[in-house]
Specification:
Blueprint: H1 3-18, E1 41-47, E2 54-61, E3 65-73, E4 80-81, E5 83-86, E6 126-127, E7 134-141, E8 157-161, E9 178-186
Antiparallel strand pairs: 1-2, 1-9, 2-3, 3-7, 4-6, 5-8, 8-9
């Protein structure tokens, strides 16, 4: 809320209190606008856990969050693999464990991005084609790109897992080993 709105609200509350009236209750959850400061970011996925999975992804903010597009290769033909944003932009460990847990600023249980409560970094599974490639076209709502807000995914990691996410098991959907990892880097 802008400072002029805060002053106006405080003045109204004081005036109502002086008259013996009770001010209206404040909303339980403040409405937070999604504001991304970056226009474009990329993540170059490198193999982890002795896999050959790699890829290059572009991230662009949109009206509801961030749109992720690109190509990932090196998966098994027709493999279904979990795909998440992780909390730390560190892919240095051989098994990508240095990327930490799923990005979860709202302290929600793990779940499916398209239904119910879930981590901000939870996304639907990827499905490889017969050559082990995935054309990624994912919208991740509720997150921002750049600006340092609690919902900002810039500087965090994108991780591909060996197994499909079951969307139920806590804390990570029983997704298995981390087979590719890339840090989200703002390019403009």
């Amino acid at each position: 809320m802008r400072s002029s709105h805060i002053v106006l609200a405080a003045t109204a509350a004081l005036a109502l209190a002086a008259c013996g009236a009770t001010p209206p209750p404040r909303p339980a959850t403040p409405v937070v606008a999604l504001v991304s400061t970056a226009k474009l970011a990329e993540a170059n996925l490198a193999s982890a856990s002795a896999s050959i999975v790699s890829g290059r992804l572009a991230l662009v903010p949109d009206a509801r969050g961030v749109h992720i597009t690109g190509m990932i290769g090196g998966l098994q033909p027709l493999q279904t693999a979990a795909f998440h944003v992780h909390e730390r932009g560190d892919c240095g460990a051989v098994d990508a464990s240095s990327a930490g847990a799923h990005f979860n600023p709202g302290a929600q249980p793990h779940g499916r991005n398209s239904a119910g409560a879930h981590h901000a970094g939870d996304m639907d599974n990827l499905r490889a084609d017969a050559q082990g490639r995935v054309n990624v076209d994912v919208r991740l709502p509720g997150v921002t790109l750049g600006g340092g807000a609690v919902t900002d995914i810039a500087g965090r990691a994108l991780v591909v897992h060996a197994n499909a996410d079951d969307y139920r098991s806590q804390p990570a959907g029983n997704a298995g080993a981390r087979i590719a990892c890339g840090v989200i880097r703002v390019t403009r």
